[in-house]
Amino acid sequence: MNLPDLLFNADFERLELPDADLLLWRQVDLGRSYDSLLQELTDTTDWRQEEITVYGKLYLQPRLSAWHGDLSYSYSGIRLESKPWTPTLLGIKARAEALTGKIFNSVLLNYYRDHNDSMGMHSDDERELGRQPAIASLSLGEERTFLLKHKTRKELKTVKLVLPPGSLLLMQGDTQRYWRHGINKERKPCGPRLNLTFRTIVTFNRGQRDK
What are the tens digits of pLDDT across the range 184-202? Predict the structure, then answer.
């Protein structure tokens, strides 16, 4: 099957949330086993544990990360200089693009080593991502629960979405504007999870504003 054909032959679900545009593929064809991809990426990626500042204090992020792509990226006071694409990452990117119909120029890899690793609630709304970013999130390894919380509508309960290995979640439209997302620690021990979030970094000319 050619990659463009995947776009028309893969089943996805549209998650009905207000002020959001979310598509979920529960199992995508990556051309090889999920376990072998997890093992390769875990072993060959140059992982880093970044520091973040919270209320004036420095903390190590409770996960490992790496940034690959065409451009650098900044978030939460952290500057990520891009590393080159690898053949494996390019192959996964091509499949994510075929499925979603989007073009990506970067990927953030997050490695959750066990149940103690997590991701705080946040929005991917940095200026470099544009006004309505499309972010494709691919999961490998252990199932973890993805949380979504509306920023202003307190009557809406937190959405809990279990992401199995091989699933792809596309967040687009106004999702980042109105919703925060994250992953809590687990109470019970669990194995490692690897998450790849493909995104497009927008470049601006000097003096240009994002309108």
Answer: 999 999 999 999 999 999 9
Nearest-angstrom CA–CA distance, 14 and 18: 12
pTM here? 0.90
First to last CA, the chain: 40
Chain centre distance of CA 148: 13
- Domains observed in the chain: 13-45+63-199 (2.60.120.590)
Report pLDDT for 5: 46
Nearest to 22 by CA among 180, 153, 135: 135
Is the CB of residue 7 less than 8 Å from the CB of residue 99?
yes
Strand partners, 14: 23
Which residue's structure tokens are 């499949």? 95
